[in-house]
Design brief:
Layout (H helix, E strand, L loop, with lengths): L2 E9 L2 E12 L4 E6 L6 E6 L7 E4 L8 E7 L14 H9 L4 H9 L8 E7 L3 E5 L15 E5 L9 H15 L4 H8 L17 H7 L9 E11 L6 E6 L2
Antiparallel strand pairs: 1-2, 1-9, 2-10, 3-4, 4-5, 5-6, 6-7, 7-8, 10-11
Length: 246
């Protein structure tokens, strides 16, 4: 995942509403969102190279025990480790477990340095936690989030990258007017690139910074492959709508 905006305990009866884009090389094999045979409670896409997923939900009986998890990579090419474990398992392992968000973060915290940089969101109807192995000094890291609207890309939570700032504001506006589902997917399809003066400096070339600055990324071999809208309810199974692009 490379962009997630989400509302946490903002709408009564719907603890979580999230909109996201998955950006990846087109050659990396994956299956669109589906019910997993080995874990029938999980509904998510699946990375066929690493075996995990980038975003998914799991359902509990009558809505109790519903859970959500998602992942973005931290863009830090100079700190990439070779042969690091696949980060997508951080998502699928939570969805397959019975651990609370707090318990799960405690479980993975001591192993997180083995992975390349990541942002992980894990939640249920009561608690949402953002955890990053790159954000140890951030006071929000590993702590339950307060109600609000958040944005996450390939830096830390709410870092003001242009596409995060723009999409979070638009997402809040759409929530405020109770916009239809189509409006959220239209928001996620925005290919506008950020002006040069607002580009982040993450260690990749100018051409890549420019390419990656749009909400929806398009290139010959890398880009936005799917857009997803998630709703986590108090008393009903979660809903995940996905539109596959590539």
């Amino acid at each position: 995942m490379c962009l997630i905006v989400f509302a946490w305990h903002v709408k009564p009866g719907t603890p979580l509403i999230a909109a996201s884009n998955r950006d990846e090389f087109y050659a990396r094999p994956a299956i669109p969102a589906h019910r997993w045979q080995d874990h029938p409670q999980i509904y998510a896409g699946r990375d066929l190279e690493g075996g995990g997923t980038w975003l998914g939900v799991a359902h509990g009986k009558n809505g109790r025990g519903n859970r959500f998890a998602a992942l973005t990579n931290v863009r830090a090419p100079h700190l990439m480790k070779e042969n690091a474990p696949t980060r997508g398992l951080l998502v699928s392992n939570y969805l397959a477990s019975n651990l609370t968000p707090e318990e799960y973060i405690r479980e993975i915290r001591h192993e997180s340095y083995h992975y390349n940089g990541f942002n992980l969101l894990v939640g249920d109807g009561d608690t949402m936690i953002w955890y990053s192995n790159f954000g140890m000094m951030n006071p929000k890291n590993g702590m339950p989030l307060k109600p609000g609207i958040y944005g996450l890309s390939n830096a830390l939570l709410d870092d003001p990258w242009p596409k995060v700032v723009r999409t979070r504001a638009q997402f809040a506006s759409l929530l405020g007017i109770n916009a239809p589902e189509e409006a959220y997917f239209e928001m996620l399809s925005d290919t506008t690139k950020a002006p040069d003066r607002l580009l982040p400096h993450t260690g990749v070339s100018y051409e890549w910074e420019k390419l990656l600055s749009s909400v929806c990324i398009e290139s010959d071999d890398y880009g936005t492959r799917a857009s997803t809208l998630v709703e986590l309810y108090n008393d009903e199974p979660p809903v995940l709508h996905e539109r596959v692009i590539r």
